[in-house]
Amino acid sequence: xxxxxxxxxxxxxxxxxxxxxxxxxxxxxxxxxxxxxxxxxxxxxxxxxxxxxxxxxxxxxxxxxxxxxxxxxxxxxxxxxxxxxxxxxxxxxxxxxxxxxxxxxxxxxxxxxxxxxxxxxxxxxxxxxxxxxxxxxxxxxxxxxxxxxxxxxxxxxxxxxxxxxxxxxxxxxxxxxxxxxxx
Amino acid sequence: xxxxxxxxxxxxxxxxxxxxxxxxxxxxxxxxxxxxxxxxxxxxxxxxxxxxxxxxxxxxxxxxxxxxxxxxxxxxxxxxxxxxxxxxxxxxxxxxxxxxxxxxxxxxxxxxxxxxxxxxxxxxxxxxxxxxxxxxxxxxxxxxxxxxxxxxxxxxxxxxxxxxxxxxxxxxxxxxxxxxxxxxxxxxxxxxxxxxxxxxxxxxxxxxxxxxxxxxxxxxxxxxxxxxxxxxxxxxxxxxxxxxxxxxxxxxxxxxxxxxxxxxxxxxxxxxxxxxxxxxxxxxxxxxxxxxxxxxxxxxxxxxxxxxxxxxxxxxxxxxxxxxxxxxxxxxxxxxxxxxxxxxxxxxxxxxxxxxxxxxxxxxxxxxxxxxxxxxxxxxxxxxxxxxxxxxxxxxxxxxxxxxxxxxxxxxxxxxxxxxxxxxxxxxxxxxxxxxxxxxxxxxxxxxxxxxxxxxxxxxxxxxxxxxxxxxxxxxxxxxxxxxxxxxxx
Lengths: 183, 490
Hints:
The structure holds 2 protein chains of 2 kinds. By secondary structure, chain A is α+β, with helices and mostly antiparallel strands.
């Protein structure tokens, strides 16, 4: 028998259907929770609004990532082909007006850097990769990849309370409410 | 999310635009067109001004042709891809596309030989050779056979005003002149003949008009059908499968026959795609403007939302990129290959007629190089960056000025394609009434002609668009997927 104190992850509540989940999410949102999430096996239209999620800041990262790529491409072409080693082809001038030749590089690097920014910033914002998630400790949560709809409210949330949060989830239509502990 | 639109929210017999909203703009547009048409008649017949006005008319015709063609494209594409998002704005696409048949009226002046002789050098040469040269078969001393020319009518047929109809010379006649330029015309004889040109233009108008007429009719008939089913939905998709190839061929070859033929020595395989990019991009801008106007007047409120603006804005954004991609590809391939026959197009469009005189003063009217360079930034870079944030596409107060801006850039784009040909062609043809070898631009008042032609054709375009909008419901209210479109979420 272990005496280790386990850390509480939060409450997990099951919902009957996508529309129950949707309505439940609206109530959790209105209760002012921040650290919580909905779990479903497929995307639900409008759930972002029901959860009160703001637009991702990813596009701003991508904009600067792409701009960096553009400048990198231009610098690479301009410094090597004009400044360091002027490359004269068919007597065309080697100066800044040779941009027509630079464009493909600028274009490709813009896309490459944008793509990398999307991938890595997305992973970073989502907190991936991770090896485990505390909710995996719950047996009923396994159904989320099949036909389960869940809301989990984390204990880290300042509004969290052992009694009131449970009551709130029940009022919102949650079933099988379970206190999930981290392994 | 606001409440879902259900069939309870839609009026049973659809929504029509009230007469009072349409009659005044229609009257103004029609009045402008009539006044412009009368002015154009005198301008075309003006001794010194008329030859330059042909270019003005061609430019205005092509500008509004691209918008109408784009309407056909979006309608057809919408059916073809089985799209659901745009059912509530599809009627605007159909009405925009249905301007295309009426554009034949604007094309009529360009069918008249005395107008064509200012525009198309190859037609002049064809008509001249046909009327003056008779091919005489000869056998040379080394045993080979060929043709020698027997000339006649040389006093009456002028090289740059040959008259004549739509009869092209045979290959033998072109061969017989032993002229280096005629060799090119002989090589292109399989495509470039006068009767072939006329038949092509007529066919494009007839077949594509039939296509968009049919698609619009299928859609409008649904509005009053007491038992609306998916039958018309599937029929329209099938018809679209036939219309799309016709559109592709017509848009490409209309660009080739009307625009690229201005200089028959030059060719570019990207030209049709470039023209198409202009069609798709700018007609989407017109669609957004039309939607905004209708919503401003209180129509389409239940079935359209910010989401439709978002989708249409995204498509417009995509075609801003596509236009840049195609235009740049055309430029870069020609630029780095650096072949004399191909570079002529961009040489002309990057030249200026600014000359420094002996006393140090500078004279000239236009530097196409500046405009060509600006086009890269103003037509691509600026709208590309501005359209990036989602609210720029969603909010009417942002997207409407952007659409207007994009249309202005399309004016510049087509202007650079058409008008630089005017000075060199007319001065070589000696039709400017000034004694000179080569002028890059004609007299300044030619620009006034451009404006007159633009307003005339534009008024006609607006008039027909309003007529189309008023002649049917504002959206296909009995389409099986109207609710899917009304509740669009993306």
